[in-house]
């Protein structure tokens, strides 16, 4: 298959089109502008609808509507813009609608700046908006995965009728790498959306809402959601493991950060230091099982969590290990990225 | 083998294109490659740079802390990036508009003057690319030319020709 050299942002857009996305609404923001630009020039040719909305909030609500009508719909933005979308994401989760939201993270808080960061982990994995809900969160670490994961995100969103989020960062969005583009539009899994609002002539009207008036109804609905979330946690954990069999120090990192951690692991191995790597691919559901298994089976000396934040995913690692293993942390944010040297030094000091 | 390259200059000097052509050629040769642009709040006439990593192995960071090769196309870029070069790294400087003062080992060539002589100031980047490839055979000239052909606008053979000429001139430059 022929490879093309494209940016992470373009790969996400092309990946979405190949996954059968036919509706995109968004509002420009750096560092994800190549994504919306690509959609503006390609989606319509493929029979889709592209809208540059008047705001991020308008865009997410357009996605809410398009998804209710049964089409594969998405929006994208970067951190401050994703904050604006939270109300809509909560409504989509509450209405049990599939949709894909892409966050190419930049440094915060507030308007922050356009440099890469991973400081929206809490927001992405804990819901972000109001209410007890979760988005399925996927974290690509290469431009190839940026393309590939769009298909996974749309499939999971449809399967569970739940919003799915792609969590990347400015570095991943901006960088170019060779990508194998597979033409998959003819192989799109057709999940029948009997719940969609497609015109009710000759059938009972469908109702899509996140509003429950009668006493007890909302609790019952929440219990249904929780059942679904438990199922997702059980079945959809994804991660990449490297040298886990005999690792004494296990590095934990996701997205672009995992690439740098992987280089550090390879260097440490070449110096005889038994290190390994867990790269969570789904951030929610967090890949708990592998941590539990490792903590029991061969008790590593320590887990070292590395993030482009001041410590967010590290909380999930601590939660899952329940004090059964030592957890260390290395993080920088605001545009700073932990370097390979910093990681190596930290491991050597453990 | 991993080769890390930073090229820096001003907006309009074709800095991004320089990196993209090299990265495309590396991809054609089956190598691992990343290209990372500066995407800050850059302004017209300000600085522009990109980072290219080419390797036989999977690439970790596309961001370059210490670089094997540094190519400086304008004065402000030298101050900004000279500390990033590894001790035995390759430094190539556009002497047409960058004053001396860098490390003695630096290779200095008047890329902008050469481009003007060739008939188009904008091909200074391709002269620089030629001079770089003569020193570090990261990718083959044949593949660079292939990428140029692919990228050149249809029906504008003149653009392709002058870029090729600039590349050849760069390859033939003697050590400055």
SSE arrangement:
The complex is a heterodimer of chains A (350) and B (176).
Chain A: E1 3-7, H1 8-18, E2 23-26, H2 33-42, E3 49-52, H3 56-68, E4 73-77, H4 79-84, H5 86-94, E5 99-105, H6 121-125, E6 136-138, H7 143-160, E7 163-169, H8 170-174, E8 176-180, H9 217-235, E9 239-242, E10 249-252, H10 255-270, E11 275-280, E12 282-284, H11 288-297, E13 302-307, H12 313-321, E14 327-331, H13 340-349
Parallel strand pairs in A: 2-3, 2-4, 4-5, 5-7, 6-7, 10-11, 10-13, 13-14
Antiparallel strand pairs in A: 1-8, 6-12, 9-11
Helix pairs in contact in A: 1-2, 1-7, 3-5, 10-13
Chain B: E1 2-10, H1 15-28, E2 32-37, E3 47-55, E4 67-72, H2 75-81, E5 85-94, E6 107-109, H3 111-118, H4 124-135, H5 141-151, H6 157-172
Parallel strand pairs in B: 1-4, 4-5, 5-6
Antiparallel strand pairs in B: 1-3, 2-3
Helix pairs in contact in B: 1-5, 3-4, 3-6, 4-6
Could you tell me the strand content of chain A as a percent range? 15-25%
Give me the secondary-structure category of chain A: alpha/beta
**What name does the CATH topology of chain B carry?**
Pyruvate-ferredoxin Oxidoreductase, domain 3
Give start-end ranges of low-pLDDT stretches of chain A: none
Question: What does the largest sheet of chain B look like?
Answer: 6 strands, mixed
Count of all domains of chain A: 2
The side-by-side strand order for the widest beta sheet of chain A comes to 3-2-4-5-7-6-12
Which class of chain B in CATH terms?
Answer: Alpha Beta
């Amino acid at each position: 298959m022929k490879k093309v050299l494209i940016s992470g942002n373009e790969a996400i857009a092309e990946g979405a089109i190949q996954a059968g996305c036919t509706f995109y609404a968004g509002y420009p923001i750096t560092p994800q502008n190549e994504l919306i630009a690509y959609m503006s020039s390609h989606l319509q040719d493929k029979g889709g609808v592209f809208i540059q909305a008047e705001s991020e909030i308008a865009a997410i609500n357009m996605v809410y509507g398009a998804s209710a009508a049964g089409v594969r719909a998405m929006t994208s933005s970067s951190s401050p813009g994703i904050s604006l979308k939270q109300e809509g994401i909560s409504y989509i989760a509450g209405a049990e609608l599939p949709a894909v939201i892409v966050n190419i993270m930049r440094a915060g808080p507030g308007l922050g700046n356009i440099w890469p960061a991973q400081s929206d982990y809490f927001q992405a994995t804990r819901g972000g908006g109001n209410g007890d809900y979760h988005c399925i969160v996927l974290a690509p670490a290469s431009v190839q995965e940026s393309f590939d994961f769009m298909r996974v995100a749309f499939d999971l969103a449809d399967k569970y009728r739940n919003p799915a989020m792609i969590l990347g960062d400015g570095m991943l969005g901006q960088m170019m790498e060779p990508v194998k583009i597979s033409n998959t539009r003819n192989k799109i899994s057709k999940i029948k959306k009997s719940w969609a609002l497609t015109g009710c002539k000759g059938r009972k009207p469908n109702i899509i809402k996140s509003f429950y008036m009668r006493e007890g109804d909302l609790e019952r609905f929440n219990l249904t959601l929780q059942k679904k979330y438990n199922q997702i946690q059980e079945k959809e954990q994804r991660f990449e493991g490297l040298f886990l069999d005999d690792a004494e120090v296990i590095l934990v990192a996701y997205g672009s950060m995992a690439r740098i951690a992987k280089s550090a692991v390879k260097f440490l191995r070449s110096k005889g230091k038994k290190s390994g790597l867990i790269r969570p691919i789904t951030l929610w559901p967090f890949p708990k099982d592998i941590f539990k298994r490792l903590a029991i089976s061969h008790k590593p000396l320590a887990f070292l969590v590395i993030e482009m934040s001041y410590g967010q995913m590290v909380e999930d690692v601590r939660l899952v290990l329940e004090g059964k293993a030592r957890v260390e942390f290395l993080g920088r944010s605001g545009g700073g990225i932990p370097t390979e040297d910093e990681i190596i030094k930290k491991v050597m000091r453990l | 083998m991993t080769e890390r390259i930073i090229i820096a200059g001003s907006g309009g000097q074709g800095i991004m294109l320089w990196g993209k052509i090299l990265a495309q050629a590396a991809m054609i040769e089956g190598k691992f490659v990343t290209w990372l642009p500066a995407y800050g709040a850059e302004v017209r006439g300000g600085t522009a740079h990109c980072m290219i990593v080419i390797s036989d192995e999977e690439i970790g960071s596309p961001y370059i802390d210490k670089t094997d090769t540094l190519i400086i196309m304008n004065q402000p870029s030298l101050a900004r990036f000279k500390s990033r070069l590894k001790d035995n790294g390759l430094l190539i400087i556009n002497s047409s508009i960058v004053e001396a003062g860098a490390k003695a080992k630096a290779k200095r060539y008047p890329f902008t003057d050469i481009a003007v002589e060739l008939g188009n100031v904008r091909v200074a980047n391709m002269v620089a690319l030629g001079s770089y490839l003569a020193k570090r055979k990261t990718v083959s000239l044949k593949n660079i030319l292939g990428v140029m052909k692919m990228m050149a606008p249809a029906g504008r053979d003149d653009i392709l020709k002058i870029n090729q000429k600039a590349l050849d001139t760069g390859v033939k430059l003697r050590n400055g």
